[in-house]
Amino acid sequence: MFSNTVKYKLYPTLLNRFDRFEKGYISETELLNSVNRLPVPQTEAQRKGVSFEEAVIKGIDEEEFDPEIISRVRALLPRPMLKTQVYCEYQLEDVLLYGYVDVLGKMVAVDIKTTSNYQPGCYAVSHQNFYLPALRGKGVRSLKYVITDFKDVYQEEYDHSMDFSSQMRQIKSFCAFLDTHRAEITDLRIFGN
C-alpha cells in the first residue's frame, strides 16, 4: 500500500556522500557530520565549480576561465533557458528526494559539473537523475550533464527509460543507516521533520 507519509528527506549530495562512505572513501564520522549539516570550509575545487557555473550562466567573472571552454559549455545549454536553479522534488515510497537543477529548458534540464578527472558514464547512477521524474510534469524529457575538467567539455544525457535500481538500493541502505544511527543525528530534518 502506498503511503504519502515522508519518513526521510534526502538530497543528491548527501546520497553521494553515502556512496563515498560505502566505497570506503570517507569515515562514518564524516558521513554523520554531513547528515548533521556541520559546516565545513569550501574547498578550492568547490569554489571553482560554483564560480564556473556563475560565469557560464550569469557572465560573472568569466575572464577567470578559458573563453573557449565557457563557449563550448554555453553551446550545450538549452535555448531558450526558461529558468536557472530550479527546485525539484520526487517522492519514492516514504522518501522525498529534493534538490536543484542548474538550467531548465523546454524539454531538457541541464546540470553543469566540474571535475579534475572525468570518467565517461560516471553520472549514470547519480541520484540527481531523480530530477527526471520530478520534472516530467514540466515537459522535461531528458537530463543532460555538461561536464568540464577545464581542458575539455563532455556531456552525458539520460531520459525517462533509465534504470534506477542501483540508486534505489542505495537509498534503502542509507535509510537503514539513518535508522541505525538515529541517536547520533542532531539535524532531524532528514527524518521528515
UniProtKB/TrEMBL annotation:
<protein>
    <recommendedName>
        <fullName>PD-(D/E)XK nuclease superfamily protein</fullName>
    </recommendedName>
</protein>
